[in-house]
Amino acid sequence: MGIELLRHIYFRIPVLIRLLLTILLVMVSFGILIHFVEPNQFPTFFDGIWWAFVTGATVGYGDYTPLSATGRIIGILLMLTGAGLITFYISLFAASTIKYERDLSEGIVSYKGSGHIICIGWNERTRKLIEMAFKVNSQLEIVLIDQSLGHLSYQHYPVHYIQGDPTEDITLEKAKLKDADQVIITADITESEPQADKYTILSTVAIRGNNESIPIIAEILTKRQIVNAQRAGATTIIRPNDFISTLLYHELFREEEAHPFESILSLLMEQQFFQINLPTTMINNTFWNAVNYFKDERCMIIGLMRNDEWLINPAHDFILEEKDSLIGIKSWEDIK
Predict the structure, then answer these.
(1) CA Rg value for the chain
(2) Chain centroid to CA 252: how far?
(3) What b/e sequence results for 324-336 when a residue is b if at least 16 CB atoms lie within 10 Å of its CB, and e otherwise?
(4) Which of 75, 196, 232, 324 is the 20 to 30 A CA-CA neighbour of 239?
(5) What is the pLDDT of residues 227-258, one digit of tens each?
(6) What is the pLDDT of residues 105-164, one digit of tens each?
(7) Spatial distance between the Cα atoms of 273 and 165, rounded to a whole number of angstroms
(8) Whether the Cβ atoms of residue 100 and residue 160 lie closer than 8 Å to each other
């Protein structure tokens, strides 16, 4: 029963470790055997083990050499077994490394870390997002989930790719959803807008079911599905159609010298929006006083929120109230 248990334990060990243990056992056995056969040539067990490793690895320093016929026969057997085992181990190690890289690029390998960001859907928006995120924080860990992508080279995109359906629990487990910091769901533009939104909402339901507290940023294309995405558990709704339509409107009716698209793109690349509660010293003060209050901190106040209403660039003499929240922008460098 004991031997059977050891056999089961041995064969459950990963093959590389199993082979390494076998090599160690063979070398130690030959080293102990040569010590007993030729104690004068190999005074200690360690001398015998040293000779076994040197001979088995075909290094052959010559500092220890068997002199008797029995010792030399042992050396021949060691060369036949030890060298073959070591060569096989090196070959297997190389093959395992190549297989791991292939599995990683094909999205088969489960993610092992924590504190990462999960991006769902591979598209140009995701690619650009990853590029921008690594410029701000090169140590950021990103896990990408996509079921249509067949291969993603880690050398080209330093993200951990998981191939699978984000609506299935097994895929979310492979991405270690429970240990992630945030999830971003991008809309599938290969589908119709209503169908893409339904898939985003279904993914949101699956994610929220596996992690009740994780922030979920969901891209919704149609206005009527916004409420459903919020009900499903989305923390933030991104409405790209509204944004693009507004941007096109600005371009259509812009002043001759203005460049709305370039200006907004530059603003979003270089500056970060923030929102803070109104300082007590600013209660019943004017909006302009609040602007001057924050200018020494390299912050630009551009508006406020009152009763869930956005007030951007109000009049200078606009009076601030206690429950107001100020909206501003500051450099990404000041936030890092």
Answers:
(1) 32
(2) 40
(3) bebbbbbeeeeee
(4) 324
(5) 999 999 999 999 999 888 988 888 888 887 88
(6) 888 889 988 999 999 999 999 999 988 888 878 888 999 999 988 778 766 677 899 999
(7) 33
(8) no
